[in-house]
TrEMBL record:
It is a multi-pass membrane protein. GO terms for molecular function: potassium:proton antiporter activity; sodium:proton antiporter activity. This is Ca2+:H+ antiporter. The chain crosses the membrane at residues 7-25, 31-51, 63-87, 99-120, 132-154, 166-183, 213-234, 254-274, 286-308, 314-337, 344-362. It is found in: Membrane. InterPro entries: Alkaline_pH_Ca-Antiporter, NaCa_Exmemb, NCX_ion-bd_dom_sf. It comes from the Bacteria. Residues 31-185, 219-361 form the Sodium/calcium exchanger membrane region domain. Keywords: Membrane, Transmembrane, Transmembrane helix.
Length: 363
């Protein structure tokens, strides 16, 4: 893998245009304005992926994938909090809908498309079983505590935690996520390094000249700028998205799906690129790391926000969503239990994603 040490000019221009568009677009809601903002948004996402890859190449795995996951999660939290602050009572379920959508998109779409494309090109690809099971075990515990258990507590009616319960779950989520990061980046870092069938390191980046420190720092700053532009433009486009969802008669939870798709687009593109280069372990580091960051950091952040704003937040998902979540986790676990994948696993996961989307629109 070869990386240019000079940054392409479009990766610098795109975020600049995005910030200019945000401050000059006003509240225009016409089709042309929407299209222009959407194009600039996509360009900013592509620029973010490029800068993330530059930083990742400099710091190595798995820290490189962790940087993108954390950066995108910060943006996701900022977007949710800003929309909840200005949206009123109708946004009490926005955090739940967005986080659940992000988890389903990661588990079924991102992982599914990576496995499918890698399987088509290479027939079989390899991952470290310990890495996947460590991530899935931690993710399952956080998911059940934050999205399932609120349906069965009796402190408040409905799928909602009392404040002490929410604080407890937020602390537990942080402990679990921090423990996983320690395992991933320090104690068992070797689990998460790309390996071939014989267990030998297969990271092509180790044979390529890393970018200079100046280039890396510049890319990191531009990565933050790009992600900030993405969240601001997504917020600017959200009224049009909400109107579109209402016009087709779909549930309001579809707004959370659209927000999650926009937020996760940089990680999706980066994961697909890695899979097409026969680095499925890197793809899974991105995907599962993003899923853990998405819920392990978002829920504590929302808990802090609700404590100071006294805004109620609904967390428990419905029965249909619980079934789809269990099916997704179980299928992902089976896909990696042997350490080898093929295109069938990707097809099955993408089918589950299609079912999730269909049942979101037609519950």
């Amino acid at each position: 893998m070869k990386l240019n040490l000079t940054l392409p000019i479009w990766t610098i221009i795109s975020p600049a245009l995005a910030w200019i568009a945000y401050f000059t677009a006003g509240d225009k809601s016409g089709a042309l304005a929407f299209t222009i903002l959407a194009v600039i948004l996509i360009a900013s996402v592509l620029a973010a992926v490029h800068h993330a890859e530059v930083v990742a190449h400099r710091v190595g795995e798995p820290l490189g994938t962790l940087i993108l996951a954390l950066a995108v999660t910060v943006i996701e939290v900022a977007l949710i909090v800003s929309l909840m602050s200005s949206g009123g009572p109708k946004t009490t379920a926005l955090a739940r809908d967005t986080v659940f959508a992000a988890i389903m998109i990661i588990l079924t779409f991102i992982i599914g498309i990576c496995i499918l494309l890698g399987g088509v090109k290479y027939r079989e690809q390899f991952v470290t079983k310990h890495a996947v099971t460590s991530a899935l075990m931690t993710l399952t515990a956080i998911l059940v505590l934050t999205l399932v258990l609120p349906n069965f507590t009796i402190g408040k009616p409905g799928p909602e935690y009392t404040q002490p319960q929410l604080v407890f779950v937020a602390i537990v989520s942080l402990i679990l996520y921090s423990s996983f990061i320690m395992i991933q980046s320090v104690r068992h870092r070797d689990y998460f390094l790309p390996k071939d069938e014989d267990g030998n390191l297969s990271d092509e980046d180790t044979h390529a000249q890393p970018p200079t420190l100046t280039t890396t720092v510049t890319s990191f700053v531009l990565l933050v700028v790009c992600l900030g532009a993405v969240v601001l433009l997504a917020k600017k486009l959200s009224p049009a998205i909400e109107s579109g969802v209402e016009s087709i008669g779909a549930p309001n939870s579809l707004v959370g799906v659209v927000i999650a798709l926009v937020v996760l687009l940089p990680e999706c593109l980066a994961a697909v690129r890695a899979a097409r280069k026969n680095r499925l372990q890197t793809s899974m580091n991105l995907a599962l790391g993003s899923a853990l960051a998405s819920i392990g950091l978002t829920i504590p952040s929302i808990a802090i926000f609700t404590m100071f704003s006294h805004t109620p937040v609904l967390l428990g998902i419905d029965t249909t969503s619980i079934v789809l979540l269990i099916l997704s986790i179980f299928t992902v676990l089976l896909s990696f239990i042997t350490g080898k994948t093929n295109m069938l696993y990707g097809i099955v996961l993408l089918t589950i994603f299609a079912a999730y989307l269909f049942l979101t629109i037609f519950p």
